Amino acid sequence: MHATRKLWTWLAIICVASFAVLLWVGKEIYLKAPPIPQQVVSTSGEVLYQGDQVTLGQQAWLSAGGQELGTVWGHGSYVAPDWSADWLHREALALQELFAQQYYKSDYASLPTQLRAQVDALVKQELRTNTYDEKTGVLALSDIRAKAVQQVAAHYIGLFGSDPKLDKLRGQYAMTSGSLPSADERKALTGFFFWSSWAAAADRPGVAGLSYTSNWPSEPLVGNTPSAGTGIWSIASVILMIGAIAAMLLFHSSHGEESDPTPPKADPLFSLKATPSMKATKKYFFVVIGLILAQVGFGVVTAHYSVEGTSFFGFPLADILPFTVSRTIHTQFAVLWIATAWLATGLYIAPVIGGHEPKFQKLGTDVLFYALLFIVVGSTVCGWLGTVQHKGTAFSFWLGSQGLEFTSMGRIWQYLLFVGLLFWALLLGRGLWPALTKPSESRGLITMVFLAAVCIGGFYATSLTWGRTTHYSMIEYWRWWLVHLWVEGFFEVFATAVIALLFSRLGLIRAATANTAIVLETIVFLFGGILGTLHHLYWTGTPTSVIAIGAMFSALEVVPLSMIGIEAYRNYQRSKAAPWVQSYKWAILCFIAVGFWNTVGAGLLGFSINTPIALYYMQGLNLTAAHGHAALFGVYGMLGIGLMLFCLRGLSDRLAWSDALLKPMFWLLNIGLAMMVFISLVPAGIYQAVASISKGMWYARSPEVIHSHFMETMVWLRVPGDIVFAIGVLFLALFALRLLKGGEPQQSTVAANDNLGAVK
């Protein structure tokens, strides 16, 4: 107990210190983010943009799809370009032509090599020189650059409008005609794109050769190449990771784990009678399966758009379901069904662990269910309406889609979801309270489950920190507080603690041993996970310290994953510990799959893109998608399914249970995911990375690459994996349908509290 208290103390110190550093970095980002000029003017006095136009342009882009329609500074979807990289390249090409005409009365391509080199030097100097005056807030451009800006702006005004000459390009970008009907918003949009590319090329004040985005994106025409810090901190992070893994292996080998206890002769939970609130969670799980089916369907449509653009096998589906909507639903539903499975699991186990049914617990469980259903349906419908009917920036922010990946629902829905998550934590706490206040071997595990739940709910507040006019660098800072800290922090802790708690209740592991192990694992997870958030922010207009801190702590995130395989193997052994454990076989195998995908998806594929030098060339390419699919579904999706199966085992008629349906479900989901990732996404990502390294980020995201024969072949090679995966989902749906027809559990009629007390 004394050793465990020390670990809790260290955990508190690490959390406080890590969040203090993260907040300090946030202050530095706020102070040193690329300035938004009050005016952008030419030397002849023509006003190109006002400051509020740049801000309005950011809102316009987000309302038109935002990060579901290409990227800015590398964050978003993969079919349309990175607009900052695209603008930068187009402006450099425009300047080449203008300088060639001004000095040599010839087009650039006709110039001899020596003269082209002179023009290239002029272009680089023009784009890298920072002419922003901090005192007046004015960004002054030469007349020749102002002309280049106007030429490039005309292209985007037509692209986001309805210029018929750009129909083919819009199709390649999976854009619909008239994405921004308002002429004022289209003009403002070009101001935002210009500003994002200006920050990517202009040298920081007093620092030659280093832009506000640390020279991202890669662009030879303006001298954007990796900084020295990018390379140095990449090497240092790899060395640190190897050393930390070696230290963990040494620690593990010198502190042999205690052997598992002899399992009970019978299932300790067999005679458990579900309480009313536990029964009320059953409908959550059927909604989970419905959301999985919907997510897979929208994923198929989204993937197909990368070939046909705005059609689905010839049918003009984008007229009623644009790419931006289908991808938003695909990504949003992934988060929602995983979260719903976890919420339901918490509500299911709370009475079991606490030993009683709190008053009105079933009512609270029902109210939360219908509230979540209202949020899911309402946010989806309003997001679709806002996009299809072009209801404007205010509607998009408050009710429609904010255009931010994984945090896209409108602010009103975010407020409601935040309240719902806090209400869930309250219900969970009510159920767990007797066990939290009573000394026992498993109290540490129960405490960790509850604290993780509180953090999952509480940290959703970070999605409420930005407003419509917040600087884009700060939006990204706060957005990753939510996305990264949920996935790499509190989800990991909640998952590990819940699995350990379930196994201890089944008598497969010792509660006292698990207590210490869980606190130690949480320390390791959060030590790298909290400050590892910064690896998402290398190129978003942040100080160079972000690269140093993010690189080192992101490398530490991989360290605990190196031991996951050992835990997965031990779980496999536990699945064979006693004959009755076979009743939970497929839930346990899902937990084993979590270990595999944690190592492969989060570990190998994650670290392959997380070092600064790798991410410099791979940000926003298909290797990111490969990591995202393998980690999000492979880890948290399989965990959600495993937890769901564990709960449904106690909520369903055992005669209706069908391992014959779960077996193909499990193998088809995992095999299909592996096919999708390694046959399609990884080769496509490597192909794009080569293009990025050789010619620049603009080229890796250009139609020439995205719609090349190789890349479109990779899209079609997703089909076999998608089909295998989809069939696995259908088996899960058939399994659920069988349970639905199986009626209520046929179990002992002993009083609920007596049963719960006996289990406890």
Overall description:
It holds the Pfam family COX1. InterPro entries: Cyt_c_oxase-like_su1_sf, Cyt_C_Oxase_1, NorB_cytochrome_c-like. The chain crosses the membrane at residues 7-26, 231-251, 284-307, 334-355, 367-386, 412-433, 445-466, 478-503, 515-539, 545-566, 586-609, 629-648, 668-690, 723-740. The structure is a single chain. The chain is mostly helical and 760 residues long. The chain is built from 28 helices and six strands. The protein has a four-stranded mixed beta sheet. A two-stranded antiparallel ribbon has the order 3-4. Strand 1 and strand 2 (47-50) form a beta hairpin.
Largest sheet: 4 strands, mixed
Strand order of the largest sheet: 2-1-6-5
Q: Give the termini separation.
A: 21 Å
State the helix count: 28
Shape: globular
Low-pLDDT residue spans: 743-760
Please, what is the average pLDDT?
93
Rg of Cα set: 27 Å
Helix content: 55-70%
Query: How much strand?
Result: under 5%
Indicate the structural class: mainly alpha
The count of DSSP E runs of length 2 or more, i.e. the number of strands, is 6
Pfam family, one: COX1
Protein name: Nitric-oxide reductase large subunit
Keywords: Membrane, Transmembrane, Transmembrane helix
InterPro entries: Cyt_c_oxase-like_su1_sf (IPR036927), Cyt_C_Oxase_1 (IPR000883), NorB_cytochrome_c-like (IPR054309)
